[in-house]
Amino acid sequence: xxxxxxxxxxxxxxxxxxxxxxxxxxxxxxxxxxxxxxxxxxxxxxxxxxxxxxxxxxxxxxxxxxxxxxxxxxxxxxxxxxxxxxxxxxxxxxxxxxxxxxxxxxxxxxxxxxxxxxxxxxxxxxxxxxxxxxxxxxxxxxxxxxxxxxxxxxxxxxxxxxxxxxxxxxxxxxxxxxxxxxxxxxxxxxxxxxxxxxxxxxxxxxxxxxxxxxxxxxxxxxxxxxxxxxxxxxxxxxx
Length: 239
What we know:
alpha/beta; six-stranded parallel beta sheet; elongated; three-stranded antiparallel beta sheet; single chain
C-alpha cells in the first residue's frame, strides 16, 4: 500500500522528524559528510554543544552556535508545508521534531513538540527575561556572548544541550500523541539518538512508515520504507 492511501485511511497521523527534514531547507545535519560533526573546530561538536562546555567556555560555545546551528533565513521546504496542510485538513494531530529551527511553525503547523527546544526562544540565565533570536543576536558583547539588556546576564538559547534532560512536559505530550496515532510517519532521522529514538516503541497503531535517505535499525518494523527525498515524498502523498 502506498503512503497516499495510508494517509487517506488514517485520521490520527503523527509525524516524527529529525535533521533530514531540515537539510532540504539548507540546514546541515549532524552525521553526513558535510554535517556538524565533520566541521573543523578545536573540539568535537558533541562537546561544544554540551552544557559543561557552555558554562566553561561561553565565548567558544556561542562562536560555534551562531555560526553552525542558527539559520535565521531558512525557509520551510515541501515536507514542512505538506505536514501543515495535513494538520489543516484535521488529519495530522502532532508533529514531533528533534530540530531546533522552528520551521514547522513557520510553515503553519500548530501542534509541534520540539524535543530539543528551539533557537527562536532565549532566556536570561539570571533574571529569566525572554528574548527572540533576533534580539539575542543583537545583544552580543565584544566577545560574541549575548547579554541581557536588563541585568547583563548571559542569554541562553532554549535549546537542550548535551548533558541536559529533555523537557518532561514536551516528552509526555509526544508520547501521548504517538500512543493515540493510527499512522506514524518517521522521517529524516537515523533513530540512534535516545531518548527520542525510543518514542517509536509507544506506537501501537495501524501503519508505521519510515522515510529516510539511509537505512535504519527499525526498517524491519515498518509497513512501508521509503529511501528518498522527504520533501518530494510528502508533497506527492499529500497533494
